[in-house]
Amino acid sequence: SSGINAEYGDFTRAGRTWASALCGSVNTMACADNTLLLGCADGSLYVYNSEGVLLLPALNIGSAITKSAVSDNFIAVISDIPSLFVWNLKEKKNVLKDERLSSFLSSGRNISSLLLSKDGNVTIGMCDMTSYCYSYSLSAWMLLSRDQVNASWYKELETNKSQPLSDQVLGVLLPSQTPTTSSADPQSTHLNTVCLLEQQILVAENLGSLPESRLWLHSLVRYITLQQDDGRLRALLQRLLSSPRDVIHGTGKLELVRELLKIVATNVHCQRVYSDIKQQLEWAQNRP
Length: 288
Fold this sequence. Notes:
The chain is of the alpha+beta class. The protein has a four-stranded antiparallel β-sheet with strand order 4-5-6-7, with no helix packed on it. A hairpin with a 3-residue loop joins strand 5 and strand 6 (44-49). Helices cover 31% and strands 29% of the residues. It is built from six helices and 17 strands. The longest helix is centred in the C-terminal third of the chain and has 21 residues, at 186-206.
């Protein structure tokens, strides 16, 4: 842990104490194993290593810093405008500048959290349980979570976050959530849940994590099988079978459909879909 005397600029990190002059009073602090980030009310920010040496020149973003985050090689801050900035410490360069967040504050919402992965991916959490991850390739925010979803969502969320994947990217960005009672009608809750599960597949693909996109595809099939949504289930499996790609989410197309059929087989009410897709799969396997 780190101790800060904001008035005098005295710091303690890993049992070592040093002093440093600051231009403004400290509003926010974030630290990782070897990095300490201080964000100040006058917009200045300071980044130190564990020896108290500045890793970047003292910077100023022009408005008060309200939130901050640190990962292995990246730092991120949010100003009171609010705007988001991200820097790569290893390459000593800015990777996201003045990304305006004003649209997230509509209807009385406010930003409750800022998360930063070791790869520099950023997630912001809102007070209404929605969260978003920034896509550098799409230059836009991707929805990660929302309220008014089926209880199955929370189970799938915690299961997938706990998977022992060495290269997990999306899981570390998804906030843990406590199940809440949805006030929406059952149809809206169902559609919200389906859309959110489909969203995780696309977000994982965008972040380059094929194992996680496959995990969330399994989650989607598990959910719509449980809900006996035969039309959606059949359309999804047929779309996979008819795909021109031989490899989908890092797995052979036919092997992937075979895996998903095992999930469909767990619900006797979906046996018609199971039988039809199994027959189509056998035809595809025997095709010269």
